[in-house]
Structure formats: structure tokens, C-alpha cells
Design brief:
This is N-acetyltransferase. One of its GO terms (molecular function) is acyltransferase activity, transferring groups other than amino-acyl groups. The longest helix is centred in the middle third of the chain and has 19 residues. This protein is an alpha+beta fold. The protein is elongated, with a radius of gyration of 21 Å. It has two domains: 158 residues, 3-Layer(aba) Sandwich (Aminopeptidase); 121 residues, Gcn5-related N-acetyltransferase (GNAT) (Aminopeptidase, 3-Layer(aba) Sandwich), CATH 3.40.630.30. Helix content is 24%, strand content 34%. The strands form two sheets. The chain has an eight-stranded mixed β-sheet, covered by helices on one side. Strands 1-2-3-4-5-15-7 form a seven-stranded mixed β-sheet.
Length: 304
């Protein structure tokens, strides 16, 4: 019988944990991986989550080990119960991410290891005595959030453990910057570049009135993260004023953004849309995007 040990993460596990995380990242986003430093930093805090991360009171990372090899790992968060915490997060416990090797000829009992680790996670959540228990797949890499459809073994594990999908489904799209519409200036429309909420903003104006804007974030692979996947950006916002619908302004703004991304040496760009927003998904696919994957947000523990 295989001998598994479930225990807290130790620093000597860092290389094996990073390898396991990158295997999951690679199944979602092409050509992206994260460094050991990125993984270790994310275990301590998540500065990108500047709203929710300050609400975290405890962090626990557990691993399942077999033959001195990490075959599964999970990172758990406990949120405080104070009034300063948002109501959806107040006094909850969450499996922030869970990674494990899928069954294979050389790991035939990997599901057993994953189940043992999940039992340890549920025991930790029980000790915290939190109001509700959630699970996700928020790895420290671009576009890896929710529970990507590319990890059926993790989905099956969550369902075996009593987690149910209770949130939204998001479509993640990708385009080569070279495939975006060409930048074609229009004499009646001017575009201004400013700093936006989610990156660099390009706003289209006509007669001094804002018609719409697009924001692109080119900092997904910041130097301190040491990721493989340079040349990747995403669309943080794309909004068209209702009065400007039907003027193909989406293509105009995507072309403007594409021109800027080429100057930034970005060759791929991501976009995220709710699965029910067929109109925006159609706009993006007609402008060079294609569906990369779908991801299911918010899994709640509801054992039968």
C-alpha cells in the first residue's frame, strides 16, 4: 500500500510545489509559468488582492507527500469576523487553491493522496469553526482563478468532498496582438491615453463627449515575479456608452489598444467575460479573440 504523509508545507518543498503549480498553470494559459519566489511570496500575502487580502487572519499551506515527493498541495485562508470585513467574506474559510497530480501510470494512487489532503483541509476549516466554507483555484498566475475547466481532476475532488458550484461562470479569451483590428484613425473621433483603474486607458471622444474606453494591463508579468510568459497583457475594462452602440467603436478601441501593445512588445492579450454576455463575446471573437477556457467561480461546501 502507498504511504502518504499529509503535513504543513516546509521551505524545502518549494521547488516541487512550484513544479506542481506550473503544471496546472500550463494547462490553462499557454507559455506561462511562475517562479519559486512568486509561489513563496503568494503563500505569505497576496498584494494584488488589495481589498480582500488585509481581511485574512490566518494562512495555512498543506502538502501530501509520497516517497519524499509532493504529490498534492493546498493553501487555506481564514477571514476575520470583524465589521471591517466585507459581508461575503466575514468569518469564512476558503481553500484558496488545491493542486494535485492526476492519475497516471507512474502515480496510480494520486486520487488517494488528494482525498487525504482534502480531509486535512476540511479538518482545518472545522477547527477554525467558520461561518461558511468555500473553495477556488486562485494560483499566482495570470488568468488562473475560479476553477478552470482544464482541471477535471480537481473539480471531481471538490465534488467528492461536498463542494458545489454556486457562483458565476467566466469565459477567458485570448488573441494574438497581430490579429487585432488595425489602428484606423477616424477624423470625427479622437482618442486620449490616460491612467485608468485597471491599466492604461484609451478613451474615444467625439465633440468633447466620451463615447467609450478600453483599459489594458501590461504588468501581468512584472519583473519581480520572474514569470515565463513575457509579452502577455489583458483587457481590464471595455465600455461603450449606450449612445455609441452600433458604431463599431469596440473594433476602433481594440485597434488603438493593439497599436499600443505592439509598442510594449506584447504579443498576446487576454479578455474575460461572463458566460451570459454573448454580445461582448461576439464583439471580441469578431476582432481576433478565441475562447481559451471557462472557469467556474465560487464553490461552497454543501455536503449532503
Amino acid at each position: 500500500m502507498p504511504v502518504f504523509q499529509v503535513r504543513p508545507f516546509r521551505r524545502p518543498d518549494r521547488d516541487q510545489l512550484t513544479e506542481l503549480i506550473n503544471a496546472h498553470v500550463a494547462a490553462v494559459v499557454p507559455g506561462v509559468s511562475v517562479s519559486v519566489n512568486t509561489v513563496l511570496s503568494a503563500l505569505e500575502r497576496q498584494p494584488d488582492e488589495f481589498i480582500t487580502d488585509p481581511w485574512v487572519s490566518e494562512r495555512v499551506t498543506l502538502v501530501a507527500e509520497q516517497r519524499e515527493h509532493v504529490v498534492a498541495a493546498a493553501h487555506l485562508l481564514r477571514y476575520r469576523a470583524g465589521d471591517e470585513v466585507g459581508p461575503d467574506y466575514r468569518d469564512i474559510g476558503e481553500i484558496d487553491w488545491f493542486v494535485s497530480r492526476p492519475p497516471a501510470s507512474f502515480w496510480p494512487d494520486s486520487d488517494t493522496a488528494a482525498d487525504l489532503l482534502m480531509n486535512a483541509c476540511l479538518a482545518q476549516l472545522a477547527r477554525w469553526n467558520v461561518r461558511a466554507r468555500y473553495a477556488s483555484g486562485e494560483l499566482p498566475a495570470p488568468a488562473v482563478h475560479g476553477l478552470p475547466r482544464n482541471w477535471p481532476h480537481i473539480r471531481a475532488l471538490y465534488e467528492r468532498a461536498g463542494f458545489r458550484h454556486t457562483g458565476d461562470t467566466e469565459v477567458i479569451l485570448i488573441a494574438r496582438v497581430a490579429d487585432l483590428p488595425p489602428h484606423e484613425p477616424r477624423p470625427d473621433v479622437t482618442v486620449e491615453r490616460t491612467l485608468g483603474e485597471c491599466g492604461t486607458r484609451f478613451t474615444a471622444y467625439a465633440d468633447g463627449r466620451a463615447l467609450g474606453f478600453i483599459e489594458v494591463d501590461t504588468s501581468l508579468t512584472r519583473p519581480e515575479r520572474h514569470t515565463r510568459g513575457a509579452g502577455l497583457a489583458d483587457i481590464g475594462n471595455l465600455h461603450i456608452d449606450p449612445s455609441a452602440h452600433g458604431q463599431a467603436l469596440e473594433r476602433r478601441l481594440l485597434g488603438q489598444a493593439g497599436d499600443w501593445l505592439r509598442l510594449c512588445d506584447v504579443d498576446r492579450v487576454l479578455a474575460y467575460e461572463a458566460v451570459g454576455d454573448g454580445t461582448m463575446i461576439d464583439h471580441l471573437t469578431s476582432a481576433g479573440f478565441r475562447e481559451l477556457t471557462r472557469t467556474d467561480r465560487r464553490w461552497e461546501h454543501r455536503p449532503e
